[in-house]
Amino acid sequence: MPNRRAFLATAAAPMLLPSSAPGANDRVSIALIGSGGRGRRVMAAFRELGSPVPAVCDVYEPNLAKGLEGAGEGAEGFQDYRRILDRNDIDAVLIATPDHWHVRMMLDAVSAGKDVYCEKPMSHSISEGTRAVRAVRATDRVVQIGMQRRSTPWIIEMQQAVANGAIGNVTMARAEWNWAISKPLDNSELPGALDEQRFLGGAARSLEPMMFRKWRYFWAFSGGNMTDQGTHLMDVIQWFSGVGAPRSAVCQGAVIGMHGSQTPDSFAAAFDYGSFLASWNLNYNNDFQSGWTIELLGDEGTVVLDNRGYRLYGAPWVQNQEPVKAHEDRLPTIPHVRDFLECVKSREEPNAPVEVGHTAVCGPHLANIAFHRRSMAFLNPEATEVF
Predict the structure, then answer these.
(1) CB 307 within 8 A of CB 176
(2) Model pTM greater than 0.85?
(3) Are 54 and 78 in contact (CB under 8 A)?
(4) 151-333+363-378 — its CATH code?
(5) Which residue from 6, 217, 278, 288 has the fewest beta carbons nearer than 10 Å?
(6) Distance separating alpha carbons of residues 214 and 382, to the nearest angstrom
(7) What is the pLDDT of residue 314?
(8) Domain ranges of the chain
(9) DSSP state of 194
């Protein structure tokens, strides 16, 4: 199926080998920007693959201390990420900050000659994503977005089977995520010093403790779980079905158990891709299947993916037709980090470049716009403008 949503920037000039690229046997040095829990876990994957981490940046003292501990002996700590970009001993940066900082830091990093591994979602808005793609493609830098399903062997295996016709043409897709984790947000005083203005970055005028602890549940810093978890799942749907961003979206959502949150802890969104429809539902007030599920329904079969592996059904459907193809590696970060490091050395395209990062979150961004408008939202074919 042709890609109906090919992004404009894919026609940009080819990547050039910069004189500063590490040699084939050199270690790629990494600086961590944002040393919260996710940042430290991904940093550990880089260290396991041999990358030294000479610098760590965070605006919250307890996180900075933990990041420096994980980085190992000799690492230097910073509150201002721009000081890291000036260092010649750093080849690339790992960005694991709240969403509202991603694009700004990414573009500052590539302008400073650094390659970038940036956690998803890539952007805080569709316009930010458009700007990021164009700006990155105006440089010769390697940028990988942290969407590890793109480098997970068993998911790649199933994607290739679908591309080869295992289920025929996709006629409908369904994504779902259930976790019973909603509870009122903690607004007690933070233990440890926080540089509030560096955290805010102009996104809001004031900050309550719960807004820092659970920044993902406030619109100034994030698109909520619509874009956070949705980037992963909607990307798989688009990747498997061979399309780009959807043409329109609608969404209903509510805060049911996570009192204090602005972003919904329960929502239902629907998307029109032209050749098929898709839905993306999340409920953090229920533990049915306790995690994520993706179903792709084709005219010749069905594939179901979840944290256990995948199931492939022929048509007509028969219960227990195919066993679960279980995979103990689940969704490891190591293959995605390894892909990035190999591309830093070879200057080839990584598995999740900026175009993929942009189109993966366009649908979730569009659903959030529809949620706020209380009406359908539309996206142009180039995935650059909302109307």
Answers:
(1) no
(2) yes
(3) no
(4) 3.30.360.10
(5) 288
(6) 33
(7) 87
(8) 8-147, 151-333+363-378
(9) B
